[in-house]
Design goal:
- The protein has 1 helix and 9 strands; from the N terminus they run αβββββββββ.
- With about 200 residues, the protein is α+β, with helices and mostly antiparallel strands.
- A 5-stranded antiparallel sheet has the order 1-4-5-7-6, with no helix packed on it.
- The protein starts with a helix and ends in a 5-residue tail after the last strand.
- The relative contact order is 0.20.
């Protein structure tokens, strides 16, 4: 009777160990799977295939064709700011950092919404040959309505001095951006700034 009882206990113990070993194996497999998922998320694919980066973008020479309009637009993967000129313009320097008003050097960060600022320097004036303004903004004015935009928070005019025009573009974070030039409409040209909604999928 004792031998039979002892064997019963041994069988129960061995069954428990076998079940515990199976559970431990499953737990290890789950942990491995979770780790793999986390690693994949950490090195996720570029958002919308965007590979622009967030480094400074600079191109072109100084032009005399004045700025005549600023517009903003929302797209599926990015927000856009368009600067339109009355003639051929392709010069710009755009980077993350403090923006200063042209001519007086006043920092625009206290007056611009957003956690990060894009410093936009356009190599063209915002006035004509008679030094009359070609845009309706004064220094510190908002040049575009970006209410309810996913990435853009503000577009503030920093002024125009000695042929250069400055804007502070406020964004919600340091995100990838690109800059390119388009011809038209007509004899006009446009410098386009796109800021992505996020870094990775």
């Amino acid at each position: 009777m004792r031998i039979r009882s002892g064997l019963t206990v041994l069988v129960v113990v061995l069954a428990g160990l076998a079940a515990g070993g199976g559970t431990a194996g499953a737990g290890t497999a789950t942990t491995g799977s979770t780790t793999g998922t986390t690693r994949a998320a950490a090195t996720g694919s570029p958002y919308c295939g965007i590979t622009w980066g967030s480094a400074e973008k600079t191109a072109g020479e100084l032009s005399g064709a004045p700025l005549v309009a600023v517009r903003a637009g929302r797209h599926d993967c990015f927000d856009r700011v368009v600067f339109e000129f009355a003639g051929a313009v392709e010069g710009y320097s755009i980077a993350y950092g403090e923006t200063w008003t042209d001519g007086e050097g006043l920092a625009l960060s206290p007056y611009t919404a957003g956690d990060q600022l894009l410093r936009v320097s356009l190599r063209a004036p915002a006035y004509d040959d008679d030094h009359l303004a070609t845009v309706p903004y004064r220094v510190g004015d908002r040049a575009a309505n970006v209410l309810r935009y996913r990435t853009l928070r503000d577009v503030v005019f920093g002024g125009s001095f000695e042929g250069y025009t400055t804007f502070a573009v406020g964004v919600r974070a340091r995100l990838p951006f690109r800059v390119f030039v388009l011809a038209g409409p007509g004899t006009h040209s446009r410098i386009v700034l796109d800021v992505a909604h996020q870094w990775q999928e």
